[in-house]
């Protein structure tokens, strides 16, 4: 059945022979995940057909479990934070109807990357001659058992929930004949996030509408869902500079608590990162979380802000250009005109126009590049300092690109009078841009952008208090993308 085929994917990424070679700790972890997904499948089998009769009617069957950690702490994990809405979703002003939705979403929570060195930092701490702080006692018998790269069950549930939420919010745009068009970048965790999103979407429709992942774009080639720019910086210098600022007191405290342990600046970040990664993997509070204070996690969060700003954000001269291809695709969808792009767009792949709902799945670095190419969170006049943290900054990775983060671009049809004021309750939405109605009113097309449910101000295209600007003004504001990055794309390779 559909749920067995789809939902088993994220948790069985290895052939059986490879499973047999896993360490005992990894096997235990996989056994736990197998039991979890078996329970999920059983619930879906028993309740999926009668979805509207259960208590999950409005929240979905599969929900992300609580972690036993205060939300304020989870929000301090930077790009490793789980998704939270930045604000309660606000519907468009009266007089406006949503006619198209474009979603750009990050994959759900994952295991550490293969090149992360968390286990080495844990081992250095464990080599202490003794532990004199009881918070470190768990290390006496600790065994590192996190795997690499793949989507976590927690991440799968995030994606599932997101798919259901999209249907409930935008159900009027979808039917059995008008399906969402879904794409994914080619990394397993991204594909599995997209797949679970489609399952959550289908579940919310009582399996009446079953979207699929239509296009998967390999990451070994330049594409609009994966940032590639060989000559761009990666923010390493700036991250190291901030580490030198906030890590020394932590190093001093840990070495006092664990005499004989050789702790370096990089180890501080890695040990702090164990808090979110182990908590999300095991769905309970990791013991590593208690080793650090709230203020230290705020400094940890700022480390992620700096990385994103100086990697594909405004702080890297070749950062925004890595989002240009997606922006040009977005313009094509909003206007119904063919893509005009000479950067990352691959015109050999399916790219239908005229759809009402698009969902693309990607990584956080690409999302940051898109934000920067579009002009969101623009702090070029006040760049992030590597010496002092601005507590009032708007560039915050946990709000911009947490696990399962999403940017939504809504196209609106708004009924206006001759003075371009919104009219309450439009009588029709299936009209062309600026078409006169019989009573002297007009329907005009507008755009608004939401990041994790918060409406963005869009001052760069003249948006007012509702965060809405005309479609024409929005497109005009994206001149950098339409000029293919003003030569920056070529600098990625020359």
Explain what you see.
It is a single chain. With 494 residues, this protein is α/β, with parallel strands linked by helices. The protein has a domain of 109 residues. It is built from 16 helices and nine strands. Strands 1, 2, 3, 4, 5, 6, 7, 8 and 9 form a nine-stranded mixed beta sheet that branches. A hairpin with a 5-residue loop joins strand 6 and strand 7. Helix 5 crosses helix 9, helix 6 crosses helix 7 and helix 8 packs antiparallel against helix 10. The chain starts with a helix and ends with a helix. 46% of the residues are buried.
Notable traits:
494 residues, alpha/beta, globular, disordered N terminus, 9-stranded mixed sheet
What is the topological layout?
Blueprint: H1 2-7, H2 16-19, H3 24-47, H4 71-74, E1 96-106, H5 118-126, H6 153-170, E2 181-185, H7 188-204, E3 213-217, H8 236-257, H9 265-282, H10 294-311, H11 324-335, E4 357-362, H12 364-374, H13 397-400, E5 406-416, E6 435-436, E7 442-451, E8 454-455, E9 469-470, H14 471-477, H15 479-482, H16 488-491
Parallel strand pairs: 1-4, 2-3, 2-4
Antiparallel strand pairs: 1-5, 5-7, 6-7, 7-8, 7-9
Helix pairs in contact: 5-9, 6-7, 8-9, 8-10
